[in-house]
């Protein structure tokens, strides 16, 4: 998920050409959509309140990246997002490994792939 976070806020500088600003906004919207879909998928896979809370935290701090008024604040918010991501991975990892050990694998529901028929 952190790779999505790093691409979440591709904000150009304020003096960037309008086309670059529009492209950055479009990329951010696409990334938000993917993150929202990933959170929904996770909610379908587990009811572990700690994992879900940590995942929601990743999404929350990520959603505020675009609100940063300057590069320093963007960097600070990015650090918060990275920390939240790492906490989520640490909590979700044991669940994923347990699914793998059980031979269940981790189902992947992605856009264009609604899962098993």
Can you give keywords for this protein?
4 helices, disordered C terminus, 117 residues
Task: Characterize the structure shown.
- The chain has four helices and no strands.
- It is 69% helix and 0% strand.
- 13% of the residues are buried.
- α3 (49-63) runs antiparallel to α4 (71-101).
- The radius of gyration is 16 Å and the shape is elongated.
- The chain has one domain.
- The protein has helices at residues 2-8, 18-45, 49-63, 71-101.
- With 117 residues, it is mostly helical.
Tell me the count of domains.
1
What pattern of helices and strands is seen along the backbone?
Answer: HHHH
Strand content: under 5%
Shape: elongated
Total helical elements: 4
What's the gist of this structure?
By secondary structure, the protein is mainly α. The chain has one domain (2-11, 19-101). The chain is built from four helices and no strands.
Write the layout of secondary structure elements.
Blueprint: H1 2-8, H2 18-45, H3 49-63, H4 71-101
Helix pairs in contact: 1-2, 2-3, 3-4
């Amino acid at each position: 998920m952190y790779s999505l976070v790093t691409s979440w806020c591709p904000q150009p500088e304020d003096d960037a050409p309008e086309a670059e600003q529009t492209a950055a906004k479009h990329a951010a919207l696409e990334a938000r959509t993917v993150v929202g879909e990933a959170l929904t998928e996770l909610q379908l896979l587990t009811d572990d309140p700690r994992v879900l809370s940590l995942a929601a935290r990743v999404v929350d701090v990520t959603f505020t990246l675009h609100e940063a008024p300057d590069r320093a604040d963007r960097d600070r918010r990015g650090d918060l997002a990275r920390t939240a991501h790492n906490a989520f991975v640490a909590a979700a990892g044991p669940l994923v490994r347990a699914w793998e050990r059980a031979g269940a694998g981790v189902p992947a529901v992605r856009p264009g792939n609604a899962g098993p028929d």
